[in-house]
């Protein structure tokens, strides 16, 4: 992993454990308090890890779903071919419905499923496909880092939102990859980390990843971002994406839209970084897929490693949309494995 401290250099946040023939992942709910691993042996366990966000981040849940198809093949090993197909289809559906917004999940699971069918339910071939998808995505993240670093000048302060680092992409990251690369190139970079209410992926995971890489950063309340932009304290905003349409519209963690509106108002360049598994080549509009709404407890309670503390009026209801939608006119450019693209470039992909 990009993060070399804590003995993490030779692992990914999600990977296939060849010895136990199961998925091994870092439980992201416990970062930064604990590095703890989960071992997933059944499709039910894989689905629970995704819905409960032990694994999160669009590319990481994509890789998990591809490995989930391999787990499904293991589970149906002893059935006859006709039953195998019915059972596999059911488990594939179950994987697809775990989290609806990030397209990487459907893209990777579908490719692994296709290989499973074409290879007559071969475990080896489906696993090889899942491994290739994961490897290719990590390579793309490395390239995103190289391409995106060109946008960062010595002394810049970058604002980021949610977590789009190594944990979210199994390695290297998308939004954080250019920052890591710029630092490697000897540039001095500072990062403002949106805490990212309600689940605090920024305050917990992004801040921890930046610290491991020795990058100067401050966690800020989400509501502080526009004030800091107005004071000229942000040179550029870089964040990830959970789904990007070919017209350049991006769905990403809730709060992205207000950052984009503010960045436009204050003239701060605003970039979305993603690998090709995040491109939705089918949907013509954001109405064609679901924005995930999560449990209201995420808003009403703050969760640490073990404690869950009520911080709101107990009897009030809460609304918890997990993602929002940012139109292309608010986005300066897209940091991709193929370079810094504009929306016309994306429409040709
Ligand atoms: O709900 P999450 O934590 O899975 O949401 C993740 C994000 O919104 C990330 O910014 C996005 O997946 C890009 S990750 C490289």
Protein described:
This protein is α/β, with parallel strands linked by helices and 349 residues long. It has 2 domains: 4-139, Four Helix Bundle (Hemerythrin (Met), subunit A), CATH 1.20.120.420; 148-346, Rossmann fold. Helix content is 40%, strand content 17%. The chain has helices at 43-51, 58-76, 81-96, 103-118, 123-149, 166-169, 176-184, 201-212, 225-230, 256-266, 297-300, 343-347, and strands at 14-17, 22-26, 37-40, 157-160, 190-194, 216-220, 236-239, 243-245, 250-253, 270-273, 279-280, 301-303, 308-310, 323-326, 333-336, 339-341. A 7-stranded mixed sheet has the order 6-5-4-7-10-15-16, with helices on both faces. It has a 4-stranded mixed sheet with strand order 11-8-9-14, covered by helices on one side. The mean pLDDT is 96. Bound molecules: 5-S-methyl-1-O-phosphono-5-thio-D-ribulose. The site of 5-S-methyl-1-O-phosphono-5-thio-D-ribulose has 18 residues, from helix 2, helix 6 and strand 9.
